[in-house]
């Protein structure tokens, strides 16, 4: 019951967070010394006062700033994020189009990052200071420090163009038609439509961008797992376990790993939050229509409704992920209590 | 260690299995869509379109999609010299240049099967006027539209407009199936800018009579055009055209090399070099209509020494145009005035080898009283024009101007920030770019004194009344020979006295697979998709 109350309370505060984020983003984006009229109207129309007035009236820019904000919040509490000036579509529709592509890639990337990151971290900790440890530490440093757009380009050049063993950019092969939209997660939608070959193609296209994006988080997870595990392995209860004659494998899997996981889960949470925020450069290289590209274009056009919409979405992501991480803490460590 | 290795090997095997397993689908993927062997063209581009509503769309790539979907009364075929009849069978211009009468092709049907009539033309143009979209200014000169019979449309103009036929090639004049559009929320009423609800419908559907229809549109992913089975003209070669949104030129290049796409449209000069000797690829070069120019303010309070016409001429003579063309890439040229090569009446471009004359420039500086030079600011937006970085060009200008004693400090800012002072005319010296509003020299008259762009340099009509007069004449002259003469005279005068110095008319680089043809560049449509076919 304590847990449910805790979740309900956290979600309740989410409402205030959303309004707070909208206010901060609204103030910051309206402080930029430039004019959305210039960004969105053609040169000819800017010269025509009637057109400028019509534009301002259409987007409510003829009203005082505080009125504009209150209208926005009024609509927001009814679930209406407004209409994008640039695409002239409801922001919610735009987000529904772009965000699933990001979710699909983020999930795939985080799975790769968790599997390899934790495994490498465990091996590295067990074989501390061995050649294997050095190799893994080298890989994790590379994963964290190599710019992902460069890695993306190299992967495409090597595995797609040169060797021809990996898929090209895009969510599916250019010859194929996207699946009928249900969730807009292509793999799921293709499976729902019973199109197995399209599902495989969509999954196949997640490989390179997934590896590129996953490599950064993988590096972080590897390093955190290693250091956390090393710390736990030096504690008294591990010595006791050893004294009891348990095998090294049992000590790690049953006793050490669980205790070492809390900082790792935190890193995974932050990494997943970052991935869900979209990655403009990697999305551009892999022609991936994700939220990063949408946010980038929105900012370039001073498309206020879209900018605020994306900011709210990203802040909700973090709140939900942090909540999940907190819940996981409790599962991993029964001493954690929710208040 | 051995155990760990085993785990590692097992993991790598899993990854390999995944790759191979999914890779199997690659064979299926490389087959053209559909088992019926439908012919499909795939073009990659970095699109800017946000809507396919012909009454609203006014982006650079809008007509690439809308030209093959919506017929227009007039159209361009191979060059931008003069438009030819489109859905109009013939046209007639009254002697006073105020009335344009069009006879429509008979028996034309929309893709829906509805017949196309003069009423549809009138309805479509009225909708564009009342929607007040970005392209609505093209309709500004229209006084009234009459439809004396179902096959005749008459446009009455408020005043003569030498560019009216060219304006008719735009999608703002695209003929819409009014019956179908109204069923989906469209209206031509005076309050259409607020009461028309068809924009979202038009984004994923179409109501035209052109060779293709819009089959689907997924923002930032693709637009799919399918053959219009009711098309009145010769059917296009491809059953489907897929326009893929791939913004990175490097990615486009890789996909072209692999044969995954047929056209890579947004390449820079450096990309072209990479594929010069690659088999199966044809490199295409064309003249873009985009200009890069220097704005030199004529108001002494803002420009200081820059406002002096002799200093402005000295700047024109001090620059190394050959070096700038090297920065902009092969195929770029330097027109003598803000009139693009390719438009009616444009003079041949400057010879970059002889255009620079430092001695003469120094003499002019002396004449202006600035023999020892001066300091000023060169403002530039941080963006790339046709693959060329504007701040890089600013550095080149900075070096060139040092030779005549002008010391410039480069001030960079984001385009959204830079636009404001540019439009208000408060920049002393700045570097800008320009794309024509429509493919006719009339759109370039904006650079003349007293006109919108001229005023951004505070170049008022009173400063060169002769040029202003000539501009007015050129804007309305319907006789081609007389118009060319006027335009040539304007350019010669602007070469002598202008607040603008055109630095570059850029080149457009793109590449196609070598088994297709009909992909020649035409600035308005980019590529006329109707004409593309297999070799």
From TrEMBL, chain A:
Q: Which residue ranges run through the membrane?
A: 12-32, 105-126, 138-161, 202-221, 260-286, 306-332
Pfam families, sorted: BPD_transp_1, BPD_transp_1_N
Q: Which intervals hold domain ABC transmembrane type-1?
A: 99-325
Q: Name one GO biological process term.
A: transmembrane transport
Q: Where in the cell is it found?
A: Cell membrane
Q: Which UniProt keywords apply?
A: Cell membrane, Membrane, Transmembrane, Transmembrane helix, Transport
Membrane topology recorded in Swiss-Prot or TrEMBL: Multi-pass membrane protein
Q: Name one GO cellular component term.
A: plasma membrane
What CDD domains does the record point to? TM_PBP2
Q: Which Gene3D superfamilies match?
A: MetI-like
The record's family statement is: Belongs to the binding-protein-dependent transport system permease family.
Q: What is this protein called?
A: Peptide/nickel transport system permease protein
Q: Which organism is it from?
A: Desulfosporosinus hippei DSM 8344
Automatic annotation (TrEMBL), chain B:
UniProt-listed Pfam families: SBP_bac_5
Annotated source species: Desulfosporosinus hippei DSM 8344
The UniProt entry's GO CC annotations, sorted and at most eight, read: ATP-binding cassette (ABC) transporter complex; periplasmic space
PROSITE patterns reported in the protein's UniProt record:
PROKAR_LIPOPROTEIN
The protein depicted here goes by the name Peptide/nickel transport system substrate-binding protein
Domain named Solute-binding protein family: residues: 84-447
Gene Ontology BP annotations: peptide transport
Coiled-coil residues are none
- Drop me one GO molecular function for this one: peptide transmembrane transporter activity
């Amino acid at each position: 019951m304590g847990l449910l109350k805790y979740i309900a309370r956290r979600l309740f505060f989410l409402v205030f967070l959303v309004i707070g984020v909208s206010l901060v983003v609204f103030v910051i984006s309206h402080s930029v010394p430039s004019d959305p009229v210039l960004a969105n109207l053609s040169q000819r129309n800017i010269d025509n006062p009637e057109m400028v007035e019509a534009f301002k009236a259409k987007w409510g820019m003829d009203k005082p700033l505080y009125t504009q904000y209150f209208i926005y919040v009024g609509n927001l509490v009814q679930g209406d994020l407004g209409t994008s000036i640039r695409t002239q579509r409801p922001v919610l529709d735009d987000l529904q189009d772009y965000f699933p592509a990001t979710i699909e890639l983020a999930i795939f990337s985080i799975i790769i990052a968790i599997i390899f990151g934790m495994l490498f971290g465990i091996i590295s900790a067990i074989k501390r200071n061995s050649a294997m440890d050095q190799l893994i530490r080298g890989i994790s440093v590379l994963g964290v420090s190599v710019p992902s757009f460069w890695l993306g380009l190299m992967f495409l050049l090597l595995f797609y163009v040169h060797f021809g063993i990996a898929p090209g950019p895009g969510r599916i092969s250019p010859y194929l038609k996207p699946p009928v939209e249900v969730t807009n997660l292509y793999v799921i939608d293709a499976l729902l439509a019973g199109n197995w070959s399209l599902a495989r193609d969509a999954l196949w296209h997640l490989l390179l961008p997934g590896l590129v994006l996953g490599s950064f988080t993988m590096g972080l997870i590897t390093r955190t797992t290693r250091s956390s595990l090393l710390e736990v392995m030096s504690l008294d209860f591990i010595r006791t376990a050893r004294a009891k004659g348990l095998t090294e494998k049992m000590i790690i899997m049953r006793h050490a790993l669980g205790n070492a996981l809390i900082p790792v889960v935190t890193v995974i949470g932050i990494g997943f939050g970052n991935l869900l925020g979209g990655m403009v450069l990697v999305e551009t290289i892999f022609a991936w229509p994700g939220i990063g590209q949408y946010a980038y274009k929105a900012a370039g056009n001073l498309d206020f409704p879209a900018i605020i919409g994306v900011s709210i979405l990203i802040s909700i992501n973090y709140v939900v992920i942090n909540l999940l991480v907190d819940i996981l803490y409790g599962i991993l460590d029964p001493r954690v209590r929710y208040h | 260690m051995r155990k760990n290795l085993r785990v590692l090997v097992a993991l790598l095997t899993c990854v390999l299995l995944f790759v191979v397993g999914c890779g199997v689908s690659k064979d299926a993927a490389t087959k053209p869509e559909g088992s019926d062997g439908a012919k499909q063209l795939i073009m990659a581009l970095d699109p800017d379109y946000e809507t396919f509503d012909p009454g609203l769309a006014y982006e650079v790539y809008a007509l690439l999609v809308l030209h093959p979907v919506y017929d227009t009364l007039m159209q361009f075929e191979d060059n931008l010299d003069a438009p030819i009849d489109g859905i109009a069978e013939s046209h007639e211009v009254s002697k006073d240049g105020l009335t344009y009468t069009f006879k429509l092709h008979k028996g034309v049907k929309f893709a829906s099967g509805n017949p196309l009539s003069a009423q549809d033309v009138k309805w479509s143009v009225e909708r564009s006027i009342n929607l007040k979209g970005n392209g609505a200014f093209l309709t500004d000169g229209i006084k009234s539209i009459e439809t004396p019979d179902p096959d005749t449309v008459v446009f009455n103009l408020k005043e003569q407009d030498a560019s009216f036929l060219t304006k008719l090639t735009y999608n703002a004049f695209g003929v819409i199936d009014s019956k179908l559009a109204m069923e989906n929320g469209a209206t031509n009423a005076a309050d259409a800018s607020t009461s028309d609800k068809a924009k979202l419908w038009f984004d994923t559907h179409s109501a035209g009579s052109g060779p293709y229809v819009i089959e689907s549109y997924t923002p930032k992913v693709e637009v799919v055009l399918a053959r219009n089975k009711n098309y009145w003209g010769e059917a296009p070669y491809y059953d489907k055209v897929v326009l893929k949104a791939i913004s990175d030129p490097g990615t486009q290049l890789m996909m072209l090399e692999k044969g995954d796409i047929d056209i890579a449209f947004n390449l820079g000069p450096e990309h072209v070099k990479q594929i010069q000797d690659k088999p199966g690829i044809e490199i295409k070069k064309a003249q873009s209509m985009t200009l890069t120019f220097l704005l030199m303010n004529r108001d002494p309070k803002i420009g200081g020494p820059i406002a002096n016409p002799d200093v402005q001429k000295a700047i024109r003579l001090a620059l190394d145009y050959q070096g700038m063309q090297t920065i902009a890439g092969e195929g770029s040229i330097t027109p003598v005035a803000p009139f693009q090569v390719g438009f009616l009446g444009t003079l041949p471009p400057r010879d970059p080898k002889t255009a620079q004359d430092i001695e003469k420039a120094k003499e002019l500086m002396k004449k202006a009283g600035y023999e020892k030079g001066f300091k000023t600011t060169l403002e530039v937006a941080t963006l790339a024009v046709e693959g060329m970085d504007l701040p890089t060009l600013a550095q080149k200008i900075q070096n060139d101007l040092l030779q005549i004693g002008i010391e410039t400090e480069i001030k960079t800012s984001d385009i959204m920030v830079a636009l404001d002072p540019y439009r208000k005319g408060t920049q002393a010296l700045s570097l800008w770019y320009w794309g024509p509003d429509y493919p006719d020299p009339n759109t370039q008259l904006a650079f003349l004194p007293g006109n919108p762009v001229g005023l951004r340099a505070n170049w008022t009509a009173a400063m060169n009344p002769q040029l202003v007069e000539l501009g007015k004449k050129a804007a309305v002259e319907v006789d081609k020979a007389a118009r060319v003469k006027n335009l040539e005279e304007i350019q010669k005068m602007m070469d002598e006295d202008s607040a603008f110095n055109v630095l570059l008319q850029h080149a457009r680089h793109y590449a196609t697979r070598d088994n297709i043809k009909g992909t020649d560049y035409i600035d308005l449509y980019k590529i006329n998709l109707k004409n593309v076919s297999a070799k």
